[in-house]
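QA checklist item 7 of 12: single-chain prediction sanity check.
[x] sequence parsed
[x] length recorded as 436
[x] structure emitted
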Amino acid sequence: MLQDHAQTLLQIDDAVQRYRTGSGDVGPLVLDHVSVELKPGEIVGLLGRSGCGKSSLLRIAAGLAFPIEGKVSCLGRPVTGPVDGVAMVFQSFALFPWLTVLANVELGLRAKGVPEDEARKRALRAIDLIGLDGFESAFPKELSGGMRQRVGFARALVVDPKILLMDEPFSALDVLTAETLRTDLLDLWVEGRMPIKSILMVTHNIEEAVLMCNRIIVLSSNPGRIAAEIPVTMPHPRNRLDPEFRQMVDRIYALMTKRPAPVPTGSATFPGLGLGMALPRVSTNTISGMIEEVHAAPYNGRAGMPELADSLQMEIDDLFPVAETLQLMRFAEIADGAIRLTPAGSRFADMETDARKRLFGDHLLAYVPLAARIRMVLDERPSHSARSSRFLEELEDHMSDEYADRTLKSIVNWGRYGELFAFDEGSETFSLENPQ
């Protein structure tokens, strides 16, 4: 599609966002002075991990949420609510199961008061455009996931929007179905067969962003800030095996795995410092499995993150927390988009189960302050026990309730594996009942 940058379709200036918690308190910062501009003729990707505020930013663009600071304008007007001329495609399909394909697609037009005959004609054209001709009378339960998402696209396109917003529209689909739908959508875009002037899409799939987008905005996490804005000048269609494509993917992996600067102890940013370190939910089985994968051929102790993601079939939201946990525990180091096992990580890979557990426990005490704090309290108390609430309250002084709960659950799992302490789920109590 030819680009025309004469007009700005969407402008988000210095957006700051927080949400209130269930108790009514103001929650942690979600977006920190984020600015995004969308011009005609471009597909812009918002790329980042869970917690970076991608979906919050998309909701602000749609007029479904409002920043506590900053300005938003769309199609030349301030955004005060849902914007006419903007349509959204969701990850979860969001179809009405009791309506046929045709009725689902017509729904938005009928809500706008479009006459029945015109709504029917426009819906049929959209269904045909998106490749569902012949399925007009089918119900969602009769369709595959890919076909249901095509209905979602038809429903968005039928209202002739100028901007299409997409919130991870391919992530709920299997790999082959997602690839087919991406290719079909790009073909329609390049051929100029869709009414839209620009697309703003949320993704956590790096290859998907490079495959589809003209510009990629990389957001850092907790809070969301713009870490980089990367133009992608390769013409469509793009070949994943092209050296330029691979270089772009590698560059973004390197950017997203770059170690952050040290942060204050009170921050919930992983890897953080002290008790302000918010831990990801990563199982010890996954930790062991990644160490084994990187240790074995063909990697032999060092693996590029893109190659590792491909071999393990893991998205960045799954891969990065595991890799960062290995780095935190000093079993691996991450640099330049690659992960390399440390001598301790290589020893772990070669050990039997009991020896692995001892080494893991030693590293947990040495490098995860919360584990050391729990063990110290248990050692000092005559009962050698302590309620989990004692540590949860301490964590909540440094991070949100959600991060505190996740962090405590992680430390329970890791501490049990390293045989540092036991935990009783019923009484929510740590103890030294099992460890020697």
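[x] summary fact logged: The chain has 15 helices and 16 strands.
[ ] second reviewer sign-off
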